[in-house]
Specification:
The protein is mainly α and 146 residues long. The two termini are 54 Å apart. It has 5 helices and 4 strands. It is flat. Helix content is 64%, strand content 7%.
Length: 146
């Protein structure tokens, strides 16, 4: 249903039909946007972005046989290098964040054991780790009992 019809339903004071019309129009627009995004994503992959890798032949264990045409390996299907690189970077960033949290928790426990107030602890954690108050409160609650 077009926007004009949706407005007409609103003017006629038919809220249920208006709700249905809005949902219908949104579904149409979302489907169109998803189709366009899919088209963009599948058209953007170039041959030079692809990587082929050698895998040792399981029959001859790299010695060479009829199965692998005497090469000792097979070529695996190509994978998009950019996608794999992005995934690795995400994993590295998550690992670093976890390491920072572990370090911050250890520091927080030391401060708590030294009878620092929660306010003092937050000030020190913010200064040293750039920690937000929300993050501090989460870590404090789960590690310092409060």
């Amino acid at each position: 249903m077009s926007i004009e019809k949706i407005v007409a339903e609103a003017i006629n004071n038919n809220p249920l039909r208006m709700k249905e019309a809005v949902e219908e129009e949104m579904n149409i627009r979302i489907r169109a946007a998803l189709q366009e995004k899919y088209r963009e994503m599948t058209e953007g992959v170039k041959d030079e972005d692809l990587l082929e890798a050698k895998v040792e032949c399981p029959k001859c264990e790299g010695e060479g046989c009829d199965h692998c045409d005497g090469e000792g390996y097979h070529m695996v299907e190509a994978q998009n290098v950019k996608e794999n690189d992005d995934e690795d970077e995400d994993d590295d960033e998550e690992d670093e964040m976890e390491d920072d949290d572990d370090e911050a928790v250890a520091e927080m426990k030391k401060l708590h054991a030294s009878a620092n107030t929660k306010k003092e602890m937050y000030a020190k954690m913010k200064e040293k780790y750039g920690m937000s108050e929300k993050k501090f409160n989460e870590l404090y609650a789960s590690n310092c009992g409060g």
